[in-house]
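Risk mitigation, structural track. In case the binding assays with zinc ion fail to produce interpretable data, a predicted complex structure has been prepared as a fallback.
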Amino acid sequence: MGIVAAVMPAPRAPVELREFPEPSLAPGSALLRTLYSEVCGTDVHVWHGRLAGVPFPIIPGHVSVGVADKIRGDIRAVDGRRIVEGDTLVFFDVHRTCGRCRACTVTRTPTRCEARRVYGITDSAAEGLFGGWAQAIYLEPGVSIAVLPAGVPPETYISGGCGLITAVHIIDRAAITLGDTVLVQGVGAVGLSAIALARLAGAAQVIAFGAPADRLALAREMGADRVVDITATNDEERREVVRQETGGYGVDVAIEAAGSARAVEEAMTLIRDGGRYVIAGHYTDAGPSSINVHQHINRKHLEIRGCWGSEVGHFVRALRLLERHHASIPWHAIGARSYGLGDLNQALADAEAMRIPKALVQPRSG
Ligand SMILES: [Zn+2]
Ligand SMILES: [Zn+2]
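Fallback model:
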């Protein structure tokens, strides 16, 4: 009996079930019995062929959680703990970052290392079980692994998922000061976690722009003080909200998690002089934004920071945050619905239509 996986054969082609042989395990590797994986915005982009360098066919699902089924040799978690069969494990989806190239060593931007690969996105199904939309995942030697903290339900971890890990990186880049007013653009999985973490980082006030209404309600539960429906307001009305909330000065920090070229233009007019803007939602090319550099950057003395991918440290710190705050911050509510491997075309359609904040994948259900 083989291992069943859901394969994305090519852009726009329906996801199909395929059976894979159980892999032979190299020393230092493990086979994970998948409990949960996820369908995130990136998977929808990949499915539409909007992300360059995806080696189709792939098994999608880059962030996942599972149980160590088989282990070869001595495997250590990132905290040094020895992993044993039966442990509930999570792993950092980015692997093979080389540690030797210019990006890794000189400019210290390892998320731009050209050797890096990502489970479920840049690993081909031709190489085996490198994605979470499968009954089992092959953890090759060198993958960064952690034991899921005791008390954190696997459903909660995966509901936070890649959005939470990305948000940890965003908050690093945002360098929020105690008492700041922070605007978060976008209330998808990344924006929702960014709201909660901005709050933990000391923001006195968090404003969220987005849609639809049910996600804005969730944004409030995640810690937003004021939410604004972008489908029910125009630019001037939103500017007025920010004026009211900041005494006319503008927000100290804005975080872009919307993936919209228009959102970038809008934020430039809403950030105070000398403020900061972190752009994280343009993982694919959403086209050019039109900016008046004199008004919005130079004279405003604005600081703009990009945020690409994440590092092991963000993953590890996301686990610490979940351990401490999972009972009070409703990450579990982001993962609204679970789908079996046979239902993932529907899950992609639901994710694309924004019918749910995030679709969970439960490969062994049904
Ligand atoms: Zn993702
Ligand atoms: Zn490198």
